[in-house]
Amino acid sequence: MYFKDRRDAGKKLAKALEQYRDVQPIVYALPRGGVVLGGEVARALHAPLDLVITRKIGHPSEPEYAIGAVTEAGDLLCNEAEVETIDPEWLKQAVERERNEAARRRKVYLSDRPHISARGVTAIIVDDGAATGLTLRVAVMALQKEHPKKIVIAVPVAPSDVVAVLQKETDEVITLTDGEEYLGAVGSYYEHFPQVSDEEVIALLNEQK
Asked: Which residues form a coiled coil (predicted)?
């Protein structure tokens, strides 16, 4: 399955999540791109929208390739085989830099709006796709600390091996494409896949108030 853009993917994802409409879930989007889809899902499910802000740690020689991910609270998940070859001091600085950027984004995106706790509820984590799955997995780590009733991951596309890992760490994983023949990049599944700006994220969150 291919998508016109993130809104199209979000609408299709919302249809796949219809069974959760009556359980009063909370939708947690991963900025920036995931907020576009999260807004569509939250609207369709009549659910609150909040963020789990994660940051990818890219390989020093190939920044787009994730070797780890961190949350604003400092939760860290790494590809151990990759980080064994990385200078520990470089990694420490990269983790701190990305954690600070995650904290900056919460302040910019949500101002003084408090985080919505996942305690005792169904938490649906939404992103525009997964490549390594590290940012989604660290988002799960962060929400698990809040003791939700259930954690569901919803993404339009993810490789089958990543889905298998996510299934072990959550209650359910919902995807819209066959990950067996993954095209190598999330953007390959979208006709229109531009960068999402901070201003767009803020506008999308304000729509959900």
From this structure: none
